[in-house]
């Protein structure tokens, strides 16, 4: 029996050695951790990048408060997977419209992520009365030249509302001194941010004590920027064909009233629903246009929708 005990002890020691080696191989190194994060369904603490910025302005991640708040937003938005995938899909459709308008106006490209957190890139409606992808209030829209009434609401016009957002942000940057503060002011207003800076005797967003919504605002923007810029790193898997794309359109000039958009749509081999999908700023089944204003209505090119 002695030889049996020796053999048993040998194989026991061998088994323990193999387990030890396996454990070392599977240890939570940065490399193994990143592979697991991508390839399985377990939930892991995220590795916060050493450097993050908004519009070229760095986040002070060496500050424990800033680090924890950034960590929170990355976690929340990484593990809200269904919403994250929708953001990838919609961004592929709408960023190509937004990006050149930002560039033309000299507004940093990072502001496209502000639109993501404002509306999820949908024509959202807020309880306070903000509308559209950029969530513009009626008074602000009119101040910057958008038409807002029951018949026409250009806050739902993506190109025009993006232009207004740019003008507002440029004005905020001139008044407050940084793009980070301009972004915060998009949520809390220029006067609101200015007042808080003065009251607390600081000059930086990350030094301000703010309410819940504005206090999270920049961190949410930066989290979406980081995730949407690095899908593999945060475990999002999709193919090009899974993403949404914009249907090509051409513009039809209208400078008179349109009494029936159902009949108008049929002239272009589409239906009323499709017309309104591509022109959400047209709020009623007709266009009053008593002033004979010039409008441009988007019509989808043929072949993208089945017609009866």
From TrEMBL:
* InterPro entries to which the protein is assigned, alphabetical: Lysozyme-like_dom_sf (IPR023346), Transglycosylase_SLT_dom_1 (IPR008258)
Pfam families per record: SLT
Transglycosylase SLT domain residues: 99-201
**Which family, according to UniProt?**
Belongs to the transglycosylase Slt family.
Signal sequence region:
1-23
| The protein, known as | Lytic transglycosylase domain-containing protein
Q: Could you tell me the superkingdom of the organism this chain comes from? A: Bacteria
Keywords of this entry: Signal
């Amino acid at each position: 029996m002695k030889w049996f005990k020796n053999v048993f002890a040998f194989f026991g020691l061998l088994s323990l050695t193999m387990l030890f080696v396996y454990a070392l191989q599977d240890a939570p190194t940065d490399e193994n951790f990143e592979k697991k994060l991508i390839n399985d369904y377990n939930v892991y603490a995220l590795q916060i990048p050493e450097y993050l910025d908004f519009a070229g302005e760095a986040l002070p991640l060496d500050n424990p408060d800033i680090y924890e708040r950034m960590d929170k937003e990355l976690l929340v938005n990484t593990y809200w997977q269904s919403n994250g995938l929708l953001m990838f899909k919609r961004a592929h459709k709408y960023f190509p419209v937004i990006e050149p308008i930002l560039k033309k106006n000299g507004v940093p490209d990072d502001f496209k992520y502000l639109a993501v957190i404002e509306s999820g890139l949908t024509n959202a409606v807020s309880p306070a009365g903000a509308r559209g992808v950029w969530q513009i209030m009626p008074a602000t829209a009119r101040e910057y030249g958008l038409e807002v009434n029951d018949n026409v609401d250009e806050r739902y016009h993506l190109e025009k509302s993006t232009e207004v957002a740019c003008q507002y942000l440029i004005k905020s940057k001139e008044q407050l001194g940084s793009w980070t503060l301009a972004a915060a002011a998009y949520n809390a207003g220029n006067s609101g941010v200015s007042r808080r800076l003065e009251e607390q005797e600081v000059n930086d967003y990350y030094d301000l004590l703010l309410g819940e919504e504005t206090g999270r605002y920049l961190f949410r923007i930066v989290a979406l920027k980081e995730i949407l810029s690095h899908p593999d790193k945060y475990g999002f898997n999709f193919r090009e064909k899974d993403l949404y794309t914009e249907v090509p359109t051409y513009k039809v000039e209208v400078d008179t009233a349109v009494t029936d958009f159902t009949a108008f749509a049929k002239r272009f081999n589409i239906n009323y629903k499709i017309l309104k999908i591509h022109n959400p700023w047209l709020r009623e089944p007709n266009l009053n246009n008593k002033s004979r204003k010039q409008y441009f209505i988007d019509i989808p090119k043929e072949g993208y929708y089945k017609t009866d």
